[in-house]
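Intended use. Records like the one below are meant for learning the mapping from a protein sequence to its folded structure. Do not use them to infer anything beyond what is encoded.
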Amino acid sequence: MNATIWLALALVLVFEGLGPMLYPRAWRRMIATMSTLPDNLLRRFGGGLVVAGIVIYYMLRKTIG
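Structure written out for the chain above:
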């Protein structure tokens, strides 16, 4: 794997860990609330995150390499 992928993975882990580390109660409430959302809304949210991640990766890849 090249350095860009490792950098992206590291940033994802840092950002994902900030919520439960800094605000555990709010993070737990958010997860509980998300578990009650309808499937189609979660799919849209997940799809939006995937598209945003691909766009950011593409932009970084174009800028770096």
